[in-house]
Amino acid sequence: MTKTGNMMMGVGCFARQPTLSRVLGRMMEAYSLGDWKAAAVGNERTSAGCLALWKLMSGTSEITGLDGDGTADEKIAGFFLAFENQRVNLSVFTRRQGMRCRKYTASLDELSRLRRSRLN
Q1: Is the pLDDT of residue 101 over 70?
Q2: 105 neighbors 89 (Cβ within 8 angstroms)
Q3: Structural domain containing residue 42
Q4: Is there a domain that residue 8 lies in?
Q5: pLDDT of res. 6
Q6: CA angle 54, 58, 63 (to 5 degrees)
């Protein structure tokens, strides 16, 4: 967990896939104040961040071509959620045999909108 002053700025987890899915699911439910899955996926304009979130939640430990290259099978090593300016950003950390870890970051705008609508 990262804190600035009295405000939490982000939280992350590095673990095996079942733990990542369980922890991330609970965090997303708490952030969006209820069920979030219908808002995250299901329409033609789903953001890259929500697609990555859905892949994390799918229960598989591999992501193929998260950056659009379509070639690299990478194991998910962890995630970090950063909260800034009423928005949440998801960073996914991956690793590949013999390669350095890579980080992909995207905004979860659909979940931020869902949270704001439930607070109003």
Answers
A1: yes
A2: yes
A3: 13-119
A4: no
A5: 64
A6: 80
